[in-house]
């Protein structure tokens, strides 16, 4: 009977290892399996087959095999190190770090294991610990390619993107064929919104490795954001239909109105969420019809894998005469978030509240809105060049009582700061329309319409139910006097004008079916839409032509400065909202300008925003619950155009006193909620629902 180290077994193992080292995993795999068939307890084969599975992305199987190898022979440090590597890929950081520690106990000072452990530290945000190890290693080994790569990852995590570029570039100087460094370099350019540089880097990478799925996917998204949607979907299709990219693929498909595979992709995404796997980029889920439960499941998995929670510090013990609020946003600029919140900051009761603005905008944009907002805070922290550790230290020094996250999981967020606890109370507000799925976010600002009580179970946060609406507003938004006539913008003077100025990624085939039916039923009516570029405009015309709707009844509007953009709404008769991702600020803009809105409400926060706003201006009759009802109501309004005149008059003459635009009332209720939260903390109570009246 053969022993685990018999000559036959060792020869087969050596042959498998040669294939493995040469990168021929398909040839190595059956040989490892053959060895294990003969000798199931051959721990080297178990370990190496586990490593192979890890390299092929089958991390659960890799862990199972390597754990078996360790159970048979636990004195090899590489077994523990490779187990840690696989655990890291699954976001199981606590277990991974224990395995790295065991490996280093067996092999103290092992450079590769130390670097891999430091990389895990980077992933969970322990950047200062990681920095000390990586930089010390590079001082002794300046030609170590892997260390430069790890430094690049570290600098990205610290939001020091130019330094990350330098580190990845240095890694490529040492190994010009390293596609992993190229991908991370391109990703960093992408994060900096330097899409041209990202595309150049990706093209070089794909010359070397034409089947790099993630590179094709990133290239597709970069092309879309660079204004080349006609090429974006081609790149995404080349990504091998990696299921983790389904939400991204759907977003680009929707935003460029290339809907050929929309139904298939939507079904695949729903199945992928249900399978328990992680779906990429949470924001990309919002334009796709999913249930409230599905969104919660997807967000919880995303936050766990990519923004793992940190050990939370002990309860804060500071007590201030005024409650200290930190509003954290990357959008203190000309942006919808600031258009809604600017007056909120200005109206806070300074006798009871001290305000801290935390600007996490990575590009350092400073415009008129930045100037206005920054003056509204008692302290204004510009975090552009601050690492997470430095920014967290600064905020802890300011002894924040409540931290309000206005970014959520949108671009350039700093959710990892909230994972480390900026404050004893942390709130999800406005920036991301839905749950963040994170245990360290205590509350979400909502109301009984946008989050009905029966749906609160699908929110990880405790719900703050505002009495009118979740959304603040700014009564100081000016509306220009022009355009004064429809002719100035290419609209027919006497026609019924329906409009929608939502982002194009909120359009979908079901909405176009409804819109075409509405327009065909209302003689002479026109549809006034926003189009991001000429390609999208052409796609809109093509899609409407499929629905027997002539291009002469489509009118397109470009982007305008805020006052002129708001004035444009006054030339239309009815705003047709999108579903399942409603207009948020866009619907508020229409109502502020005096234009009635028709919406369709679903289960999710994103699909109920407009319903909340309509109730807050006294128009619940404009909320529908099905495409058929939506379509019928729009036709009814179009055939009885006079029925909208009175609504317009009320909105234009009394809008500033309606609850949606009664900003002082909103601020009073929000301050009441903040006070309740802090009192709970001081009494040692856990967060719980808050209902304001």
Description:
The structure is a single chain. By secondary structure, the chain is of the alpha/beta class. The chain is 51% helix and 9% strand. It is built from 29 helices and 14 strands. The strands form two sheets. It has an eight-stranded parallel beta sheet with strand order 3-2-1-4-5-6-7-14, covered by helices on one side. Strands 10-9-8-11-12-13 form a six-stranded parallel beta sheet, with helices on both faces. Strand 4, helix 21 (415-419) and strand 5 (425-428) form a beta-alpha-beta unit. It is globular and about 95 Å long. The N and C termini lie far apart (80 Å).
How are the SSEs placed, and which strands pair?
Layout lengths: L6 H15 L3 H14 L4 H13 L3 H14 L4 H13 L3 H14 L4 H13 L3 H14 L4 H13 L3 H14 L4 H13 L3 H14 L4 H13 L3 H9 L8 H10 L6 H13 L17 H15 L16 E7 L6 H12 L5 E7 L8 H8 L3 E4 L5 H10 L4 E4 L9 H5 L5 E4 L14 E5 L14 E5 L30 E4 L8 H13 L4 E5 L3 H13 L7 E4 L4 H7 L5 E3 L8 H9 L3 E4 L8 H7 L7 E2 L2 H13 L5 H10 L8 H20 L7 E2 L2
Parallel strand pairs: 1-2, 1-4, 2-3, 4-5, 5-6, 6-7, 7-14, 8-9, 8-11, 9-10, 11-12, 12-13
Structural Rg: 28 Å
The largest β sheet comes out as: 8 strands, parallel
Termini separation comes to: 80 Å
Q: Largest beta sheet: what is the strand line-up?
A: 3-2-1-4-5-6-7-14
**What sort of overall outline do the alpha carbons produce when their principal axes are compared?**
globular
Q: Briefly note the structural class of the backbone.
A: alpha/beta
Question: Strand-residue fraction?
Answer: 5-15%
Annotation, overall tally of beta strands: 14
Low-confidence stretches: none
Helix amount? 40-55%
Overall mean pLDDT stands at 91
By DSSP (H or I, 4+ residues per run), the number of helices equals: 29
